[in-house]
Amino acid sequence: MSTLQSPPPALPPPPPDSRSRPAGAVLRVAIIGNPNTGKTTLFNALTGLRQRVGNFAGVTVERVEGNFRTSDGRKVAVLDLPGSYSLSAGSPDEKIALDVLLGKSADLWHPDVVLVVIDAAHLERNLFLTSQVLELGVPVVVALNQFDVAEAQGIQIDIPELAYELGVPIVPTVAKRSEGIDPLVRALFTAAALPPPERKFALPEAVSAALAPVRTLLVDSGLTPGASDMEALRLLALDCADAHLRGVAGLAPAVAEAARQLRLAGFQSNRFESEVRYRWITEVAARTVTRTAVDTSQISHRIDDVVLHRVWGPVIFLLLMAIVFESVFSWANPFIDAIEKGLAYLGQAVGGLLPEGDLQSLVVDGIFGGVGSVLVFLPQIAILFAFIGLLEQSGYMARAAFLMDRVMRRVGLHGKSFIPMLSGYACAVPGIMATRTIEDPKDRLATIMVVPLMSCSARLPVYTLLIGAFVPAVHYWGFVGLQGLTMLSMYLLGTVAALLAAAVFKRTLLKGPVRPMILELPPYRLPSVKSLAVSVTQRCRLFVQRAGTVILSLSIVLWALATYPKHTPDASLSPPAQQEAQLANSALGRIGHAIEPLVRPLGYDWKIGVSIAASFAAREVFVSTMSTIYGVGNVDDDAVALGQRLREETNADTGKLVYTPLVAVGLMVFYVFALMCMSTIAVTVREAGGGRIGWGWAGLQFTYMLVLAYGAAWVVYHGGLALGFGR
Amino acid sequence: MLENHSQQTKARSVPLPTIQPSSAVSTSRVCALSACRSGSQATVVDIGCAPDEACRLRALGVCEGASINVIDARHCMVLDVRGTRLALGNALTSGITVQTDSARS
Amino acid sequence: MDTIIVLLVVLTAVGFIGRRIFLAMRAARSAKAGCADCGCGSSGGSETDWSKS
């Protein structure tokens, strides 16, 4: 791979200009590129895990910044701009990218160099954005990424010629293997010291004259001459009512007049920019790209023939989902057992070091019991996230969104609403944030309202505990397990409920037409194992962090509520009964008995009731609360698994089993529907508009889900009783 | 060499089409994209969608003069444009006018 | 002695939860907050890049 990064030794040093930076200053690099070019992989290859995720001020667009040091100690700050097809600012993402590149961003982060990431296998389309960026008056470096894929498809790019055409350094890279990174970094420093590139094509005289007044207005408003040229051309295509034209006084009429003059000269103003840019792009491509092999193999297309098939497509999709859930259940088991045993051993060892008393109880029951019962689900979380990551990185997710579009439209949603909903299977918070890609505000709001119905990973501990305890481990046809199927049913229930709820919202509060579908189907690619491992590790780390902080704190508080106030034991009772009495008289017990009337219609006792109440903060707390309650009441030193204890628990008054499979199913159904997450509420408030409006929508969301949860659990329990189950 | 590229590369003059649809295109082979069959090839003549959608389409490569391969002609069409696979909804494809090439299934 | 330790631990836990609630409310109010403030178990990132068209 040839690159152009080392300057020939005979040249004089570049003249000092305003662009030369003091030695030791941080080099600021903004990365931009089309979606699916491996931009983020390149960003990760440059910065490793030294990244910080935040928000751009004032808008709900994610801001990812990282940094690294070169081998000779120079510091580089990298800002990963959102993936954009052009700078035409149709979405908040693109507007932010444009603001940053024009130096207008609110946090005053001005790039010294812009790194444009291009997919070498799709050069022509990628050059549209590149041609716009080249005119902005900032130094540019181009990373020709996925170079290996292009070579494999028989695409050959004459890099020196392309560098000549674009007037900037071009570095071929294979980001997923971290190839080309060093030359790229050197090119960044070289480019920063050079004058910026300019527009590479000339407009007809008539057009330049027509655009001159617009250009002047933009220069006066503070843009560089090059950026003004780019903007003037871009604004021609916009509707005169567009918000961007209202930013500068007199701009809208000036653009309208320029458009009129263009039409007089025989050009179409709304398509002029794309025509002139693609003309230039076609010429550049003709000069620099050769295809040595005719691209007939196209494995991607063959796969699509099957995956997008009218009948087989949905079947494959459901099959994939079933495999994911089955594996989450069965593959994780050995790891879960190992963690359970390890924690039990650790808990007993630490407990043995402490004298009998409250501190020992706090450590063994409150901390180890509470947090440990959540930590055991780490393997399942890891497998779930690994599969989701695999589907995303391989390119299948776009096909899934395409397949789901039909179904989505029936309920009045866009096919793209499927993506946030799918993210909701991992966690509703990023799912709700992913709705930012939905342009229509009503579609977006409807999606936000239903995303929490998708069973998130926090529900997994609850499902697993109850299924593991009450659903027999039976297998049909050798590999389809009843437990896995039950799990899948819960997930399906949530999904169907989400679609129906969306249909209701879109027909009532959020009535409106649905935007047409535009979706790129990226070529399939083998996911990078390293990238997948990094992302799964990050998520697991965050899960453990959450367990070690939020869940730990909640467990400790709950333990305290279950242990105090102390009750004088009645010596005539047996030890287990004494413990029960203590529990019933503690703060937690009193609260539990107080709310018991609310949950008895659903078939629950006060212990479940109080665990449900506690888990409104975070769902996993249900498991840790139950674990604490049963640990606190348990005199035995044997570490009996919670599941087994639940199966054996009998009601002191009636002597009947407290937990039957029917109760367990009803409880799971409750958890499918109820919104029990502080984080979700907080994010909904923000993304639904903030302030009173945001709180209004969040309140509606919480209420309707609670009503649904209670109602469905009631129907399941009483319906089941009527049908003869649960006796 | 590299340092002088920015100054030396002169802006090229790019010849531009002034599109006069009525004279250049035979009306019998012009139709909406949504009417095309799977496997057909077409050239975009006009994009008659809402301005922001048209903008988006053009940035993706679907602009006047672009050549399209129709991969799958169902309600939501799957197309190949400049090597990129796109799925476009019916509301859009019915607004895009194309000139079909000689029938090829 | 043990009682004091238990009390300290419990108070720390209560304080931590209070702080979390406060942060979440603040995150709800301002658009500036990022992924980390909401305390969820997931990182954001460009994984939704493919839906950008």
Q: Keyphrases for this structure?
A:
A: 727 residues; Rossmann fold; seven-stranded mixed sheet; two-stranded antiparallel ribbon; 13 strands; 57% helix; elongated; disordered N terminus; B: 105 residues; SH3 type barrels; 4 helices; 7 strands; globular
Structural topology:
The complex is a heterotrimer of chains A (727), B (105) and C (53).
Chain A: E1 27-33, H1 39-47, E2 51-55, E3 62-69, E4 75-80, H2 92-101, E5 113-119, H3 123-133, E6 140-145, H4 147-152, E7 155-157, H5 159-166, E8 170-172, H6 181-192, E9 201-202, H7 205-220, H8 225-235, H9 251-264, H10 269-288, E10 289-291, H11 299-307, H12 312-330, H13 333-353, H14 358-375, H15 378-394, H16 396-410, H17 418-423, H18 428-433, H19 441-450, H20 459-470, E11 475-476, E12 480-481, H21 482-507, E13 518-521, H22 529-563, H23 575-585, H24 587-599, H25 606-614, H26 621-632, H27 642-648, H28 661-673, H29 678-687, H30 691-722
Parallel strand pairs in A: 1-4, 1-5, 5-6, 6-8
Antiparallel strand pairs in A: 2-3, 3-4, 7-10, 11-12
Chain B: H1 5-8, E1 12-13, H2 21-24, E2 30-32, E3 41-47, H3 51-59, E4 67-72, E5 77-81, E6 84-88, H4 90-93, E7 96-100
Antiparallel strand pairs in B: 2-7, 3-4, 3-7, 4-5, 5-6
Chain C: H1 2-29
Describe the structure.
The complex is a heterotrimer of chains A (727), B (105) and C (53). With 727 residues, chain A is an alpha/beta fold. Among the domains of chain A are: 27-192, 3-Layer(aba) Sandwich (Rossmann fold), CATH 3.40.50.300; 205-291, Orthogonal Bundle (Helix Hairpins); 531-564 and 574-722, no CATH class. A seven-stranded mixed beta sheet of chain A has the order 2-3-4-1-5-6-8, sandwiched between helices. Chain A has a two-stranded antiparallel sheet with strand order 7-10. In chain A, strands 11-12 form a two-stranded antiparallel sheet. In chain A, strand 11 and strand 12 form a beta hairpin. The N and C termini of chain A lie far apart (73 Å). The model of chain A is unreliable at 1-19 and 633-639 (pLDDT under 50). Chain B contains four helices and seven strands; from the N terminus they run αβαββαβββαβ. Chain B has helices spanning 5-8, 21-24, 51-59, 90-93, and strands spanning 12-13, 30-32, 41-47, 67-72, 77-81, 84-88, 96-100. Chain B has a six-stranded antiparallel beta sheet. The longest helix of chain C has 28 residues, at 2-29. Mean pLDDT of chain C is 66; it is low at 32-48. The chains are: A alpha/beta (727), B alpha+beta (105), C mainly alpha (53). At the A-B interface, helix 3, helix 5, strand 9, helix 10 and helix 11 of A face helix 1, strand 1, helix 3, strand 6 and helix 4 of B. Strand 13 of chain A pairs antiparallel with strand 6 (84-88) of chain B.
